[in-house]
Amino acid sequence: MADIKYYDVILKPVVTEKSMEAQGDRKYTFYVHPDANKSQIKEAVEKMFDGAKVEKVFTMNLNGKTRRRGLTSGKTAAKKKAIVKLTEDSKEIEIFQGL
To answer: DSSP character for 67?
Structure first.
C-alpha cells in the first residue's frame, strides 16, 4: 500500500444537485484517492479545512464505465467517492460557500 499524505487524499469536490442539497445536513461530498481509507479521509478533511470536525465518513467505490469508439472499446478510470458528515459544533467548509 502506498504512503498517502493528507494533501493527496482529497482530489476534488463533487458539485451536483444531490450533493449540494445534502449540505443542509452538514454532509460534503469529495472524490478521494482510491487507496485512502476512512481514517485517512477524516484526517485530511480536519487538517485541510480549519475548524472542521468530522463525525462520520461514508465511502463508495465507483467502477469505470465501458465506452466505445468505433470498434475499439475500453473502460474509464475507477473512482472513489466519500461523503463526510460534520459535527454540530463544527465550522462549515469554505470551499462550498457561494456555489
So the answer is: E
